[in-house]
Structure formats: C-alpha cells, structure tokens
Amino acid sequence: MGSLPGILLLIVGLLVSVGLHEVGHLVPAKKFGAKVPQYFIGFGPTIWSTTKNGTEYGLKAIPLGGYVRIAGMVWPGNARRTQVNRKGEVTIAEEVRRASGEELTPEEEPHAFWRLSAAKRLVIMFGGPVMNLFIAGVLLAIVMSGIGALVPSNQISTVSTCIADTDTCEKDDPQAPGAQAGILPGDVVLSWGGTPTNSWTDVQQAIASSGTEPATVIVERESEQVTLTVTPAVTERPVVDENGAIVTDDSGETLTEQKPYVGIGPGYEHERIPITQIPAQLWDLTAGTANVIVKLPADLWDTAAGLFTGADRSESGVMGIVGAADLAGSITSTEHDAYGLSARIGDLLLLIASLNISLFLFNLLPLLPLDGGHIVGAAYEGARRKIAQLAGKPDPGPVDIARLMPLGYVVASLFIVMTVLLIIADIVNPVF
Q1: Residue 244 pLDDT > 70, yes or no?
Q2: 371 pLDDT exceeds 80?
Q3: Mean pLDDT, to the nearest integer, of 391-400?
Q4: 3-class state of residue 387 by DSSP
Q5: 324, exposed or middle or buried, with CB in 10 Å at 0-12, 13-18, 19+?
Q6: Secondary structure class of 190 (helix, strand, coil)
Q7: Which residue intervals of 334-431 are DSSP H helices?
Q8: pLDDT tens digit string along 257-292?
Q9: Residue 57 and residue 59: Cα distance in Å, rounded?
Q10: Cβ-based neighbours of 30, under 8 Å, separated by 6 or more
Q11: What was the pLDDT predicted at 322?
C-alpha cells in the first residue's frame, strides 16, 4: 500500500471533483428556476449543513461522493390514473412518479425539473459531466504547460558496473560496457557513433543501430567535451512496447530479445508544451479512457476470473478506487531520483485528471440513473415536440422516463457489483 499523504490527496481531489460536478448541475438548475432542496458532499449521516435560498448545503459522514437533489425530476403522471401490474400491484414506475410528485407543494409545482424546456434540462444535465471535462483540462494545462511532463533526457543518471541478471554484481560478472568506457553519472551524451543525440530516444536508437561495433561517444562533462569509445555487449533484454511497458506472452512470461547493451540509464527533465496543445492532449486522454470503458465488460470478466485463477491483471485494464488510492500513495512514496516534489504533484494531478475523464464519460452513458439517461430523455422529448410542431400536430407532452426506472435499478445494481468486484481485486490481485 502506498503512503498516506498520496491517498489523502487523491480522496480530497475526488471529493472536490465530485463537488464541482454537482455544482455543474446546481448552478443552471437554480438559474432556470428549478427547486433544488439539497446539495451534499458525501453520504450517510449529516455532520454539518446550512440552508440558503431554499437549498440545504452540507457534509455527510461517508466521503464517497456527493449529490444535488433537484425536485420533480420525472413527470408525475396522471393523478387520476394509477398504473398497476397484472397482479394489481403498483408498478415501480408509478412509485417513482408518486415520489416525484410528492417532492413539491402545489405552489412549488411550477418549479419542477420536468416542467423546464428540453433545452434547459439538457444544460442542467450536461453541466455535471462538462464540469469534469473542464477540471481535467485545467489539470492537464497545469501539468503539461506549467510543471511539464517528466521525460528521459540525454543526460546519464545511472551507470551499471557489471552485466548481471540481478541488481547485485558478483565478482565473476563481466564489467558493463558503459562503465568500462568511462561513462559517468551526470555526463550529457552529445553524439553516439557520429549521430547527434538530443534526447534519450536518440541515444537508444544510436546504440541499437551501432550494434556491437566500437562507437565513438562524445559527452559533455563539467562544461568540457570528452571523447570515449564504447563497445556494446549483446544481452538478453525484455521486450517493451511503444509505451515502455514490458511485454509478456499468453502465460505471463516476459518476452526477451537479443539487444546491444551498454548499461546506462537516463536522467529526467520537465518538458513543457504550449497551452494551445492542451485540447489535443485532452482528446487523447478522453479517447484512451473511452477505449477502456468499451473494453470494460471483458476486463471485468478477466478480473473476476483472475480472482480464482491467480492470473495477473493487465496494467492497461481497469482498476477500482482502492487501486487508484494505492497508485496515488506509490507516487508520493517513490524514492526514484527523478521524482522530485514537482514531479510527484504532476503525477497526482494527472491521476485526478484521468479520474475526471472517467466521471465525464461514465455519466454520459445513456442509462438511468446516470446523467446520460436524463439527457437522452430530454433530447427525445425536445425532438418529438419539434417534429410535432413542424407537422402542425398537438404537443405530445412530456416523456415518461419513469418507465425506464426498473432498468435504472438494474444498472445501479450492476455498478455496485462492479465496484465491489474491483475493490476485492485491487486488494487480492492488484494491478501493480
């Protein structure tokens, strides 16, 4: 488990994100005249609250989210007619309609959410997810354009003393080529085998292209240029993908390949990008998160199976709140030389930005009780009324989304099952 400061910072970041998500609903709802009885952070018993302009604002004991309650979310139906099932029992949809109708007095009824125009309801329901998207964009701008992303540089940070399969050198282990050639930590590689090297990628590519032939290497050391001759050795090295992650086969074994080896590691530096590139970065993050959500059913199946088979979880798969908290703790507890305070803050902010993108996309799923379910209902009602108007037909009236509430309960139950599954998996079979 990671360190407590990182976990606490993540919790605070999530609570602020959820709170601002609900503000995205609250502000337009009050602006358009809807009655908003409550705005709370957390769930469970109330530990503090105050009422202002008809809305109770407060904190609850369990810091696992938040909510804003807007009165009259669904059409209350025909008061003269009660819908029952074949057994003569009141339907779930009818119970929801009744509860919605009881939230408002006759004087307050004009302030029901369902009475607002479709356009206003869309603004209210989009407000929450869009707020999460905005938060993610701001955090990305702070990190990428302010702090800068941590990238490997052409300055050498570590030099291995030997060629070994473990971190500890034995006396019979051969000396590593980099150390044998006289490369020192702090050297800046200016060229390798005649090829200029301005980044760590350039250094890697130059080593790969030179093979095991002796290469003339020019480094800058204490403001002076030093010429060295390095002869790489061939060793069995792990295969890595384009993101630098180690590749494994179907059985989980690490794939290896014969590669030139020098035994040097890069230092890191902060690389900033112009603020104009942030929208593209936000799009990439959103697209990547959407891809994870598309694969969510398969990932959940594999996660559940892994609890019984012991198979390792994919590092690119989904994790729960416990896994995210552990990752946040690891960020603040790492002892890697590259991770100074600014780098740790940047990584935490990027993690919170990713979680906000997840909130943005999940809430747009066209299912009740998510925001997307109400968005689809409002959009359908607005389109239906517009078509009727253009056709010269009477107003068809409000859409009865209460009929979809039984499906909404199923969706809510599935989310609870998913949450419990991921919590168990994060504890028993963590991703990292």
Answers
A1: no
A2: yes
A3: 88
A4: helix
A5: buried
A6: strand
A7: 341-363, 371-390, 405-428
A8: 788 889 898 988 888 999 999 999 999 999 999 988
A9: 7
A10: 36, 53, 55
A11: 80
Residue 379: band (very low, low, confident or very high) from pLDDT cuts 50, 70, 90? very high
Determine contact, residues 1/93, Cβ cutoff 8 Å.
Answer: no
Going by their DSSP bridges, the two strands 264-271 and 149-159 should be labelled as: antiparallel
Angle CA(43)–CA(363)–CA(366) in degrees, nearest 5? 125
Amino acid sitting at position 222: E
Task: Name residue, tokens 């602006």.
Answer: 31
The span from the CA of 379 to the CA of 266, in Å, is 53
Burial of 397 (0-12, 13-18, 19+ CB in 10 A): exposed
What's the mean per-residue pLDDT of the chain? Answer: 86
pLDDT tens, residue by residue, 166-188: 667 777 778 889 999 999 999 99
Find out whether 28 and 127 touch, Cβ atoms under 8 Å: yes
Amino acid present at 271 = E
Query: Of 159, 155, 160, 154, which is closest to residue 186 (Cα–Cα)?
Result: 155
For the record, the structure tokens of 319 come out as 């994790």
What is the structure's pLDDT at 432? 66
Cα torsion angle, 341, 343, 346, 348, sign: negative
Determine contact, residues 74/56, Cβ cutoff 8 Å: no
Phi-psi region of 377 (alpha: psi -120 to 50; beta: other; left: phi over 0): alpha
Residue with tokens 């701001």: 138
Distance CA 201, CA 208 (A): 11
Question: Which positions are annotated as active-site residues?
Answer: 22
What single string gives the DSSP state of each residue in 15-68? HHHHHHHHHHHHHHHHHTT----EEEEEEEEEEEEEEETTEEEEEEEEEEEEEE
